[in-house]
Specification:
The protein has 261 residues and is mainly alpha-helical. Helix content is 91%, strand content 0%. Helix 1 packs antiparallel against helix 4 (45-194), helix 4 (45-194) packs parallel to helix 7 (237-260) and helix 6 (203-233) runs antiparallel to helix 7.
Length: 261
C-alpha cells in the first residue's frame, strides 16, 4: 500500500513540473469557478498574471511539501523494506530451525519406534524367562523332594546298619553266654553224676554262681536298655521280635542258673 501511494505521488509531482495552465490552477485550488468565468476576466492581464504568480507560488509551496512528504515516505519505505528483509531472514531462520526440528522429530520418532520394538522383544524374553524359571523351580522342588526322600532312606539305612552292628555284638554276647550256659550245664551234670552235693552247695561254688548270675544280670539289663533305644528309633517288627526272643533266652539262662544255685 505504501509503495502504491509513493508511485502515485511521484506521478503527480511530474505532472506539476510543467508550466501552469488555467485548468490546472483551477483543479489545484479546488475552486468551483467555471472555465467560462476565467475567459471573461482575460480583459485584465495584469490581474491574471498576478493570480498566476500567486497560484504558481502556492503550487511550488505545495510541491515542496509534497517532495518533503515524499522524502519521508521514501525513508519510511526503506525502513519498511529493511524490516521486511529482516523479517524474511527471521522467517527463513525459523523455517530452517523448523526443518531441523522436524528432522530431529522424525529421528526421535524412528528411535522411539526402534526402542518400542526392542522393549517388546525384552518383554517377550522376560515372559519366556519367567516361564523357564517357573519350570526350573518346579523341577527343583521335585528334586528337593526326591533328595529329602533319599535322605530319609539313607537315615533309615544308617539306623538299620547301626542296629545290625549292635545286633551282631548282642548276638556275639548271646553266643558267649550260651556257651557259658552249656558249660554250666555240663558242670551241673558232672556234679550231679558225682553225687558231690556238699561241694555243690559249698560257699565257693555259690559265690562263683552268684558272680556269674550278676554278670548275666548286667548283660540282660544292658541288652534291655539297647533294645529300648532301638525300639524308639525304628519300627521294624522283625527286629523287635528277634530282640525279644534274645531277651527271653537270656532270662531262661538266668532262671536256669538260679535253679542251679
Amino acid at each position: 500500500m505504501a509503495d502504491n501511494e509513493a508511485l502515485a505521488l511521484c506521478e503527480e509531482i511530474l505532472n506539476l513540473s510543467s508550466p501552469p495552465k488555467p485548468t490546472r490552477i483551477i483543479q489545484i485550488e479546488n475552486t468551483t469557478v467555471q472555465r467560462t468565468d476565467i475567459v471573461q476576466n482575460t480583459s485584465s492581464l495584469p490581474v491574471l498574471a498576478g493570480e498566476v504568480a500567486v497560484a504558481q507560488k502556492n503550487q511550488v509551496l505545495r510541491l515542496e511539501k509534497r517532495v518533503e512528504f515524499l522524502g519521508k515516505l521514501q525513508v519510511e519505505h526503506r525502513e519498511v523494506l529493511r524490516l521486511r528483509r529482516e523479517a524474511e531472514k527471521h522467517v527463513q531462520a525459523v523455517l530452517r530451525k523448523s526443518n531441523l526440528l522436524q528432522d530431529d522429530i522424525e529421528t526421535c520418532q524412528k528411535n522411539c519406534e526402534s526402542l518400542r520394538k526392542e522393549l517388546n522383544v525384552l518383554v517377550a524374553n522376560t515372559e519366556a524367562l519367567k516361564g523357564d524359571i517357573c519350570v526350573e523351580e518346579n523341577e527343583l522342588a521335585k528334586e528337593k523332594r526326591g533328595y529329602e526322600v533319599y535322605q530319609e532312606k539313607m537315615t533309615k539305612h544308617k539306623e538299620l546298619s547301626e542296629i545290625a552292628e549292635s545286633s551282631d555284638a548282642v548276638n556275639v554276647n548271646i553266643t558267649n553266654n550260651m556257651k557259658y550256659y552249656e558249660m554250666l550245664n555240663k558242670e551241673k551234670k558232672s556234679l550231679v553224676e558225682s553225687n558231690d552235693i556238699p561241694k555243690l552247695l559249698s560257699g565257693e561254688i555259690k559265690e562263683i554262681c552268684m558272680a556269674e548270675l550278676f554278670t548275666l544280670d548286667e548283660s540282660i539289663s544292658e541288652l534291655k536298655q539297647n533294645l529300648k533305644i532301638k525300639f524308639q528309633s525304628t519300627d521294624e517288627k522283625e527286629k523287635q521280635v528277634r530282640f525279644k526272643k534274645d531277651v527271653e533266652l537270656l532270662q531262661v539262662m538266668q532262671n536256669s542258673i538260679i535253679g542251679i544255685i
